[in-house]
Design a protein that fits this description.
Oligomer: heterodimer
Low-confidence stretches of chain B: 18-22
Helix content of chain B: 40-55%
Strand order of the largest sheet of chain B: 1-2-4-3-5-6-8-9
Strand content of chain B: 5-15%
Radius of gyration of chain A: 22 Å
Number of strands of chain B: 9
Number of strands of chain A: 3
CATH architecture of the largest domain in chain B: 3-Layer(aba) Sandwich
Number of domains of chain B: 2
Shape of chain A: globular
Order of helices and strands of chain B: HHEEEHEHHEHEHHHHEHHHHEHEH
Strand content of chain A: under 5%
Structural class of chain A: mainly alpha
CATH topology of the largest domain in chain B: Rossmann fold
Structural class of chain B: alpha/beta
Order of helices and strands of chain A: HEHHHHHHHEEHHHH
Low-confidence stretches of chain A: none
CATH superfamily of the largest domain in chain B: Alpha/Beta hydrolase fold, catalytic domain
Chain lengths: 257, 430
């Protein structure tokens, strides 16, 4: 047990050291010209047409920081997060994993409820409330999800989407350490949701720090377990830019619903 | 008399109808080759394969001495996967298609199918995949069938060295799809001389006949199907996102997953092939842009990155991405590939290279070797008119040609999976 604890401690320290190293190594993103050997065969000037709009053109003034956060997340995943998730998947049967996911989803219905309400989507708010009641009772504290089988689909909304719904733009693109791709609007949303959840949501109802802490840990591991994305697995040298574009599009689609 | 004639006629009709139902019908759902290529085989039609297999991941380092430019820092070791059975079994190597990794959706189907059928399975990324270029390409300039296949052969040997303590192998087999199929043919030929594996059977799935012809078809697919040309890609992308948004907003049970595109397709059936052709072209363009950029940075070719510039780990690549995605595979062929090989051998002409990157180059071997099998589609869109017939003539009774499926779209369809696995399981050589 102690050796295991030591290992976790060591990896945590390693991750923190990596982060410090990454962010202190200067944030310039302009390529380094060692010697001037003339222009390449294809340049922006002889290839691109002026006035072209690019799908990949996302406002990203903090690119230097973001790229480092992206790499940090890769190491965080590799040395800490994914090993824990792997251990979790090894211990738990698939069926139990699905029960945990269902339970976590049910607890977070609180955020779907508040955000549907804030967007004045009354039908969806009602569905969310009904889902919570049905799944908490018949679904045994949310371990099962009978509501979906009865035609009450989950109505996912978060505060980032609520802001988007009322016309708030993306703001600068951000890669959050640990949480991953985001932007100023969605980060504001994430913080607001987290605060609302802990002040007025299930943690406040339970009012027990230990339970809340365990739940936070479990929901983080469950979330990563369900997320297939792996940093730097596409092999593309343009992965950072592709993710930036896809994240922005995905959020556009979600806000439009 | 009339009565007897009627009865006879009735019997004839019955026999005709019966023979109609008895004759094998191929029910792959998409008759349109563009749709087939984009959507593949939707979940409800897929051959029943295990949900999970005990996949193991590992890496090999082919050039420990190679200095890797900062921006390519995470590509220096070649990743691959393998599946092994406890007892003795044949081992099959799988080679991915253009730009694809060993973990592409098509590779996953093949892995499961062969593992289920009792094979040890080793999956390899395409030599055009950035990881392979950096970690395992001798030249760093992919596209040369003979050289890329030789690199693959080296990789297979390194992996075999690591694996042989862990697995008991009775026989070696080889297969690949798309470009990986063409490479499999060249690997088999090399193996006849070097004899490390002595592949007993080799299956080519949807190979190009001429690499040059096929890349031109794919280049055009992007350039000719986006209204207003490539510079209007943004408008095309926005329309695509809108279509997806509509599907997502209206469908109650729609989630972001591999079936999303199919859901969108069912929700609003596009009236023309154009968007599908443009999607195929975009996908191919992304693969060739990744490939060309990585090759350029690695070999300092001065193709889109100035020769004197060192790109570090966190440098912005946005401007290079814009330039290199505007360039076709044909541009790469003329601007990086050809100059590289001409620098090695000044007598080499463009025509020589075009000829060398085709199955015709080794057709005598392919025609006579009994170890080959071919699976392709009548409507494979990377083949020019006449090329399916060429393959049919070349492989004769060793060819299985399905009526539809586009380019690799039907690989997960039951008839195809059974043909693929069945080829290796039939004990006698053709």
């Amino acid at each position: 047990m102690t050796t295991h604890k030591n290992k976790v401690l060591r990896t945590t320290l390693l991750a923190m050291a990596m982060m410090a190293l990454l962010f202190t190594s200067g944030c310039s993103i302009t390529p380094q010209q060692t010697v001037d050997l003339g222009p390449p065969l294809h340049t922006a000037e002889n290839t691109l047409e002026e006035g072209t709009v690019y799908a990949s053109d996302i406002y990203d003034p903090l690119e230097g920081f973001n790229r480092r956060a992206y790499t940090f997340n890769y190491y965080f995943d590799k040395f800490l997060f994914l090993p824990i998730v792997k251990g979790y998947e090894f211990i738990m049967p698939d069926y139990a994993e699905d029960r945990v996911s269902s339970f976590v989803d049910n607890v977070f219905e609180f955020n779907n409820f508040t955000n549907n309400l804030l967007q004045l989507k009354f039908k969806q708010t009602g569905v969310t409330l009904a889902r919570f009641v049905v799944n908490t009772t018949i679904g045994v504290a949310g371990l099962w999800d009978p509501a979906t089988h009865w035609g009450m689909e989950r109505q996912s909304e978060d505060f980032g989407q609520t802001l988007g719904h009322y016309g708030v733009g993306n703001g600068p693109y951000l890669v959050l350490p640990i949480f991953g791709p985001s932007n100023l609007r969605d980060t504001t949303g994430l913080i607001t949701d987290t605060v609302a959840f802990s002040v007025a949501g299930p943690p406040a109802w339970v009012d027990d720090d230990a339970t809340t802490m365990v739940f936070t840990g479990v929901s983080a591991v469950d979330g990563r377990h369900r997320q297939a994305f792996r940093y730097y697995r596409s092999g593309s040298p343009f992965e950072y830019g592709m993710m930036r574009m896809l994240y922005t599009s995905k959020r556009e689609i979600e806000i439009a619903k | 008399m009339m009565k007897r004639l009627n009865r006879l006629l009735g019997v004839c009709i019955c026999i005709l109808m019966l023979s109609g139902t008895l004759a094998h019908s191929y029910d792959y759902p998409f008759a349109d080759r563009y749709v087939a290529t984009v959507l593949g085989t939707p979940a409800e039609y897929v051959y029943d394969l295990p949900k999970e297999v005990p996949l193991k991941f590992d890496t090999v380092k082919m050039f420990p001495e190679r200095k890797i430019p900062g921006i390519l820092w995470n590509l220096d070791e070649l990743r691959y996967s393998y599946l092994r059975h406890k007892g003795p079994a044949p081992l099959i190597f799988l080679v991915a298609g253009t730009g694809a990794s060993f973990q592409s959706a098509k590779m996953k189907v093949m892995q499961k199918a062969f593992y289920q059928a009792g094979y040890h399975v080793v999956s390899l990324s395409s030599p055009t995949h950035p990881n392979f270029i950096v970690a395992a390409s001798t030249s760093g300039v992919p596209g040369h069938l003979e050289e890329d296949s030789s690199d693959l052969y080296q990789v297979m040997q390194s992996i075999w060295e690591k694996l042989q303590k862990k697995v008991e192998v009775t026989d070696f087999f080889l297969t690949g799809y798309s470009l990986g199929a063409a490479q499999s043919a060249f690997i088999a030929k090399l193996d006849e001389e070097v004899k490390v594996f002595n592949f007993r059977k080799v299956l080519l799935i949807n190979p190009p006949v001429s690499l040059y012809n096929s890349v031109q078809v794919l280049d055009k697919m992007l350039e000719e199907n986006i209204p207003g040309g490539v510079n209007n890609f943004n408008a095309f992308y926005k329309r695509l996102i809108n279509a997806l948004t509509e599907t997502y907003a209206h469908g109650d049970n729609v989630e972001f997953n591999d079936q999303f595109l199919y859901q969108a397709f069912k929700y609003r059936k596009p009236t023309s092939d154009e968007p599908f052709a443009a999607l195929i072209g975009s996908d191919f363009r992304i693969s060739s842009a990744n490939m060309a950029f990585v090759s350029d940075v690695l070999t300092k070719a001065g193709y889109v990155v100035p020769k004197g510039v060192d790109l570090r780990r966190h440098d912005s690549t946005e401007e290079y991405a814009r330039v290199v995605t505007r360039l076709s595979f044909t541009d790469y062929f003329k601007g990086l590939f050809l100059p590289y090989f001409q620098a090695q051998n000044p007598n080499l002409t463009e025509r020589d290279l075009v000829e060398m990157t085709s199955l015709q180059y080794i057709e005598d071997y392919l025609r006579t070797s009994p170890k080959f099998g071919l699976i392709t589609n009548e409507d494979d869109l990377i083949l020019l008119p006449g090329e399916v017939d060429y393959l049919r003539r070349l492989f004769g009774s060793r060819a299985t040609i399905f009526p539809s499926g586009g380019h690799c779209g039907n690989m997960a369809y039951p008839d195809n999976v059974m043909a693929m696995v069945g080829f290796f399981q039939s004990s006698n050589q053709n």
